[in-house]
Design goal:
It is built from 20 helices and 31 strands. With 731 residues, it is an alpha/beta fold. Helix 1 packs across helix 2, helix 3 packs across helix 4 and helix 6 runs parallel beside helix 7. The chain binds adenosine-5'-diphosphate and zinc ion (ZN).
Length: 731
C-alpha cells in the first residue's frame, strides 16, 4: 500500500476478511465512504464478517449486485506498513493472508461499539467523617493527580473495600463518572534519570541512541554476559524512542520474566507499560490493541505475538534473550518472532535490538557479515564476576545406581550451604523419571496416542505424555505382561533429583522450579520471589531457571547431565547445549559473591563441553559456523520442513510419496528433497506423521518454488500438510 486512498460512498472496494477464502471480496463503500485500511464488518452470506479495506475493488461486473459494507469499526485503520508487513510474513511463511489477518486481530470485541464504564476521581465535597480507610482513598486520588480509577483499582490501591469508595461517592468527596472503557496507557517520562552507566555501558547506549535518532532501519546485536547491564543499556534506546514520540516494543521469552521487567520500567519511567501475553485479560487485550493503533500505548512488553499489534508508529523492537527457542511459533502460523521483528522494523523504518549473552548462530553470522551492528558489554556490572566453570569427570566418580549427584558436587553444595549461599542443580527434564520399564518383560510404558514414552510425574501420581498431555494413573501392573509390582523408573527427572537431595541434605530447604509444578503464573512468581529472598538453600530446576531470573545468593550451579543435549540428530544440538549451559552457569554469582559452575559429564573432551569450559565463545561460534557452512545448512543454506499428518500412516505416506515424485519445481531451483520418512515422533494424538525436508542454497528464492511444488496437491480427507520455513525443531 502506498498512501492510503479514500473511497467515496458506493465506490467498489476490495476487502480482506478473516475467512479462509483465497481471494479478496468486492463490496460497495458504505454511506460516508471509508479509508483504505479501515476495519469493517461486511455481509457474507447470512453472516457478518470482519475485514480490512485492502484497496480498490474489481470492476467489470454489475455494481448493483454488490453488497455494501455494513459498518466501519471505530478503530484506527490499518496502516500501509502493517498491510505490507502482513503480506510479507504471509509470503515468507507460506501463510494465506486471511490467516495473517486473524493473527493481527487477536483481540476480542473489536466489532463492539465503544463501551463506557464508571471511573472515579477526586470530588469537591469534604466527607462528614474521616476514617483511616477514607483518608487512604483520598490520598491515592491526590497522589495520582487527575487520574481516574475504576472502582476495583481504587479500592485495591487504597487497600479498602469497595463500600468505602461508594460511601465517599455518596458524600460527594469522590466523583463517579462515565468514561470510555479503553483508556490510553499512562505516559512514560523518558527524561526521568536512569542509573548512571559505566563507561562501557554508556558507549553502547550512545550507539543505540544514535540509531534511534537516525530514523532509519537497523538491527543491532547487543551481546553481553548475564548481569552486564544489557537491560539498563537498551532502556536508553527505549527512552530516546519515547522522546521522539514513537512507540517501543520489548519482547521477552517468558511471562515469568515480565513482572520483574514491569517493575524496572516503572522505576525508570514513572509508570508501567502495557502488557501483552496469554495471562492478560480479554478486556485488557482489546484495550491494548486499540490503544496501540492510536499511539496511546507508548511502550508494550509482551510475548512474540505482540509483534502483530497495530502500532501507530513503532520505532524500536527489543528482542531480549534473542537466542531463546520460544520465539519460534510452533503451531498455526509458523514464524520466528526474532526474524519477523527484523522484517517489521525494516518496513517501519524502526530499529531492532537483539539482546543476549549467547547469540543464536543466525544472529552471530549476520553480525559477522555486517548485516547487523554488534555491541559487546564485556564485564558484569559492579563487583559481580563471571562464574568459574569446571567439569566433573563422571568416569572418576563413585556413584551408586539411581544416584545422580557425584561426591564432588555434593561436597561443593555442602560448602555453599555452610556459607549461607544457594546452590542450583540443573536438570532439563520434567517429572520423576523419563522412562518406566517393566522388570519382568522389559516393556516401556508408552502413550496410547503418541509414539512416545510416558513420563512418571510422582507429584501428580500419574504418567504423563509430554507430546499430547494425556495422563493416566500409575498402573499397578505392566500393561503388556500384566505382572504386578514390577514397574520401575529409569533415569532422573527433577522430581527424582529432589528426592535424592532430600536424602542427602535432610536439613536443606529445597525449591523445585519446573513449569509443570505451578498452577498459575502467580504461584510461580511467588516461588521465584521466595528463592530470590533466600528462602531456599538448594534450587532444582529445568530450563526455565536459565532465563533471566536474578538470584543474588546463588553462587553454585551444578549441571547434572551436561551431555544431555549433545545426543540426537538436531543440527543445532551443539549450539543449544552451549547456550543453555552458559545461561544456566550465568545464574551463579550475580551479586557480590563469586560463582562456580560444575558440569557433570562423561565426555569432558567433547568439543562443545571444552568450548563451554574455556569460555572462548568466539572460537566456538567460528567452529560451529564452519561446520554449518560445510554442510550447507542454516544460516549458510536454507531449510524447509514439511510435515504431513493423517489418521493412517498409509494416507500420510501417499501424499508424501506423491510430493516426492512431483519435485520438479524444487529441482528447477537446485533444491534437494529428503524423505518422505516417518517423523522422529511418528504418531502424536493418534495422528501419523511423515516428514520431508527441503534444502537449498542461501541465494535461492525458495518460497515460490515451494508454493509451486505443494500447490500441485490439495490434501484429501483428514490429511494435513504444514510447511515450516527455517525449522527449529525436527520432531
Ligand atoms: P542483563 O540484562 O545484561 O542481564 P541487567 O541490566 O539486568 O543485566 O543488570 C544486572 C543488574 O545490575 C541489575 O540489577 C541492574 O539494575 C544492575 N545494573 C546494571 N548496570 C547498572 C548501573 N550502571 N548502575 C546500577 N545498577 C546497574
Ligand atoms: Zn501422547
Amino acid at each position: 500500500m502506498a498512501d492510503p486512498v479514500f473511497f467515496d460512498s458506493g465506490a467498489r472496494v476490495a476487502v480482506l476478511t478473516t475467512q479462509p477464502l483465497d481471494r479478496l471480496l468486492t463490496y460497495r463503500a458504505p454511506e460516508g465512504g471509508c479509508w483504505q485500511g479501515a476495519y469493517v464488518e461486511a455481509p457474507l452470506g447470512p453472516r457478518k464478517v470482519m475485514g480490512v479495506v485492502w484497496g480498490a475493488g474489481e470492476t467489470g461486473f454489475d455494481a448493483s449486485k454488490l453488497r455494501a459494507i455494513s459498518k466501519v469499526l471505530d478503530v484506527a485503520p490499518m496502516r500501509g506498513e502493517m498491510a505490507e508487513f502482513l503480506a510479507r510474513v504471509g509470503d515468507y511463511t507460506l501463510t494465506p493472508l486471511p490467516q495473517m489477518l486473524r493473527l493481527a486481530t487477536r483481540a476480542p470485541g473489536l466489532t463492539d461499539p465503544p463501551s463506557m464504564r464508571k471511573v472515579y476521581r477526586l470530588g469537591e465535597a469534604e466527607p462528614d467523617r474521616l476514617t483511616d480507610a477514607r483518608t487512604r482513598v483520598l490520598a491515592v486520588l491526590e497522589d495520582f493527580g487527575g487520574l481516574a480509577f475504576t472502582l476495583g483499582e481504587l479500592a485495591e490501591q487504597a487497600g479498602v473495600t469497595t463500600s468505602v469508595v461508594k460511601g465517599l461517592v455518596k458524600q460527594g468527596a469522590v466523583r463517579e463518572e462515565e468514561s470510555p472503557r479503553d483508556l490510553p496507557y499512562p505516559m512514560l517520562d523518558p527524561d526521568a534519570p536512569g542509573k548512571p552507566l559505566t563507561e562501557d555501558q554508556a558507549a553502547a547506549a550512545s550507539v543505540l541512541v544514535g540509531g534511534i535518532r537516525s530514523g532509519l532501519y537497523g538491527t543491532t546485536l547487543l551481546r553481553g554476559v548475564t548481569g552486564s547491564g544489557k537491560t539498563e543499556v537498551y532502556m536508553e534506546a527505549v527512552a530516546e524512542t519515547l522522546r521522539r514520540g514513537r512507540q517501543a516494543l520489548v519482547l521477552l521469552p517468558e511471562i515469568a520474566l515480565t513482572a520483574d521487567f514491569l517493575t524496572r520500567v516503572e522505576a525508570r519511567f514513572g509508570a508501567r507499560p502495557a502488557e501483552w501475553h496469554s495471562g492478560v485479560t480479554m478486556t485488557e487485550r482489546r484495550r491494548l490493541w486499540r490503544m496501540a493503533g492510536e499511539g496511546a500505548a507508548p511502550l508494550v512488553v509482551g510475548a512474540r505475538s505482540a509483534l502483530f499489534l497495530p502500532f501507530r508508529d513503532l520505532g524500536l523492537i527489543v528482542v531480549d534473550e534473542e537466542h531463546d527457542q520460544s520465539y519460534k511459533q510452533e503451531d498455526g502460523v509458523l514464524y520466528s518472532a526474532r526474524d519477523m521483528a527484523v522484517l517489521r522494523a525494516s518496513v517501519n523504518a524502526a530499529r531492532v535490538i537483539l539482546a543476549t549473552a549467547t547469540p543464536s548462530l543466525e544472529t552471530w553470522a549476520n553480525a559477522e557479515a555486517g548485516k547487523y551492528e554488534r555491541l559487546d558489554l564485556t564485564a558484569r556490572f559492579g563487583p559481580a564476576v563471571l562464574p568459574e566453570l569446571r567439569a566433573i569427570d563422571m568416569r572418576d566418580e563413585d556413584l551408586p545406581a539411581n544416584r545422580w549427584i557425584s561426591p564432588t558436587l555434593e561436597a561443593h553444595v555442602r560448602d555453599r550451604m555452610a556459607k549461607g549461599e544457594q546452590a542450583l542443580l540443573f536438570l532439563n527434564r520434567r517429572g520423576y523419571a523419563p522412562v518406566t520399564i517393566c522388570r519382568a518383560c522389559g516393556h516401556q510404558v508408552a502413550c496410547d496416542h503418541c509414539d512416545a514414552r510416558m513420563v512418571e510425574h510422582r507429584f501428580l501420581k500419574r504418567l504423563v505424555c509430554h507430546q499430547c498431555g494425556e495422563s493416566k494413573p500409575m498402573p499397578e501392573e505392566c500393561p503388556s505382561c500384566h505382572v504386578a509390582g514390577k514397574l520401575a523408573p529409569v533415569g532422573p527427572g527433577v522430581e527424582r533429583l529432589a528426592e535424592e537431595v532430600a536424602e542427602r541434605f535432610p536439613e536443606a530447604r529445597v525449591a523445585v522450579l519446573s513449569s509443570d509444578l505451578f498452577a498459575s503464573a502467580r504461584a510461580l512468581k511467588e516461588q521465584i520471589g521466595l528463592i530470590a529472598g533466600g528462602g531456599a538453600d538448594i534450587v532444582i530446576g529445568t530450563q526455565m531457571v536459565a532465563k533471566g531470573h536474578n538470584f543474588p545468593l546463588l553462587t553454585l550451579v551444578g549441571v547434572i547431565d551436561a551431555d544431555l543435549g549433545l545426543q540426537g540428530s538436531d543440527l543445532r544440538a551443539a549450539e543449544k547445549t552451549f547456550q543453555l549451559i552458559r545461561q544456566v552457569a550465568g545464574r551463579a554469582g550475580r551479586a557480590e559473591r563469586p560463582g562456580l559452575a560444575l558440569l557433570q559429564t562423561f565426555q569432558p573432551e567433547h568439543p562443545v563441553i571444552r568450548a563451554i569450559l574455556s569460555g572462548e565463545e568466539e572460537g566456538f561460534w567460528r567452529a560451529e559456523a564452519d561446520e554449518r557452512r560445510a554442510a550447507g545448512v542454516p544460516p549458510y543454506g536454507r531449510l524447509a520442513g514439511v510435515v504431513i499428518s493423517a489418521g493412517s500412516a498409509e494416507a500420510a505416506f501417499d501424499l508424501g510419496n506423491a510430493l516426492a515424485r512431483a519435485d520438479a519445481p524444487l529441482r528447477a531451483v537446485g533444491a534437494q528433497l529428503y524423505g518422505p520418512a516417518p517423523a522422529p515422533i511418528a504418531r502424536i494424538r493418534g495422528r501419523h506423521r511423515v516428514r520431508l525436508l527441503v534444502k537449498s542454497d542461501k541465494t535461492v528464492a525458495l518460497q515460490p518454488a515451494l508454493r509451486a511444488w505443494i500447490g500441485q496437491f490439495s490434501p484429501k480427507g483428514d490429511t494435513r500438510l504444514s510447511v515450516d520455513i527455517d525449522p527449529q525443531s525436527f520432531y
